[in-house]
Design goal:
With 362 residues, the protein is an alpha+beta fold. It is built from six helices and 23 strands.
Length: 362
């Protein structure tokens, strides 16, 4: 009866978690049972580790200047590495197609002027009862059709790179231009020059790549087991370059090759020291409340749905309830009430557990 009562009490304490049971065990007993100890370590899966990362240009901060028509690049005004302003001319393109677009626009404008006169004349004749209403409606319909054609051709000139001021000056064939200046769509730096002077290009062919280089993105590859520890907004730094920012995305897609987690940070301080495509080492600075401890997996003790470790005390061992965050290899990340300098049993654990549960008590 006594043995049963002791075992029941020990099990009751474990199940209710009211007080952690302590196992009294002398040093000689520990040695005979083959019990060895290990320090509770600081978790280094995320904390205080450097991870490989690549610098990238954020979506929305990069533009491509492309050829608006097929033709010949007769002038380039900027090269890779130069800063440009929005609207600044970066290249000049000579295009026979542009001449044809201007000719079509002028022809449509001429027809519009003639039909405008016809509409005015037919409206006057209709008021005097000389012509039928049907003829007036046909003339007005023809005018609306050519007006739509003018709008279409004007838009085609805009797409070809001509500004409204240049189009408005296009009154006669003598005002037509054989070339057009291509301009920077945003403020930024020329990252890449893809053509040379004298090169023939097709419509839509990229000529320059321009990007705004502040802020920049940091694409980080971190261990998959660190997923439970990372949170949006965590500070991120590149220690060697003294650049800092914060975590803005946790991409739920794992790299199949090395089973790493894809994290994205935005670098706002020190971005001028970085370049797109550069490989760096990044550090994630987790908050103080995040679990930072790890123990060998052999130290884990499972009882029902709960997990424990046996912490060394002056008299023996004490069972401490823990939460297992993740397991990787021979290590387990844990969270629990620890100072951080405790020692836990890593061998002979089953013997301690037996004594803890009262097995073999008399």
């Amino acid at each position: 009866m006594k043995t049963t009562f002791i075992a029941f009490c020990a099990l009751f304490l474990v199940q209710t978690h009211s007080i952690a049971a302590e196992v009294v065990m002398s040093a000689s007993q520990q040695k005979s049972l083959g019990i060895t100890l290990s320090n509770i370590g600081k978790n280094n899966v995320i904390h205080s580790r450097l991870f490989p990362a690549e610098i990238a240009v954020p979506v929305g901060q990069e533009r491509v200047v492309s050829a608006v028509q097929s033709g010949l690049i007769d002038q380039l005004y900027v090269a890779a590495g130069q800063e440009v302003k929005q609207g600044q001319a970066v290249a000049h393109l000579i295009s026979p197609d542009l001449v044809n677009l201007q000719k079509d626009y002028l022809q449509a404008m001429t027809q519009k002027k003639l039909l405008a006169k016809s509409v005015a004349r037919d409206q006057a004749l209709f008021k005097e009862g000389i012509i039928a209403e049907r003829r007036l409606l046909e003339t007005e319909s023809a005018y609306e059709e050519i007006a739509a054609s003018v709008t279409q051709r004007r838009q085609a000139l805009r797409l070809a790179g001509m500004g409204d001021a240049a189009i408005n000056r296009l009154n006669t064939a003598s005002n037509m231009h054989s070339g057009v200046s291509l301009v920077a769509p945003i403020d930024g730096q020329i990252l890449e020059q893809m053509v040379t002077t004298g090169q023939r290009v097709d419509m839509g062919m990229p000529l320059y790549r321009i990007a705004k280089l502040k802020p920049l993105w940091l694409e980080i590859h971190a261990p998959l087991e660190g997923l439970p520890l990372v949170k949006l907004g965590m500070p991120v730094s590149i220690p060697k370059l003294e650049a800092t920012g914060k975590l803005i995305a946790i991409v739920r897609s794992v790299n199949k090759a090395d089973q790493t987690l894809h994290l994205r940070a935005e670098i706002t301080k020190g971005a001028e020291k970085l370049s797109p495509g550069q490989f760096v080492e990044a550090q994630i600075n987790a908050d103080a409340s995040a679990p930072k401890l790890s123990v060998p997996k052999s130290a884990l003790v499972r009882q029902g749905a709960d997990s424990f470790v046996f912490v060394k005390t002056a008299k023996g061992f004490k069972a401490v309830n823990i939460r297992i965050i993740a397991e990787q290899g021979d290590e387990a990340m844990i969270d629990g009430q620890f100072k951080g300098d405790e020692k836990v049993a890593i061998t002979g654990v089953s013997a301690i557990k037996g004594a803890w549960l009262g097995i073999g008590a008399e």
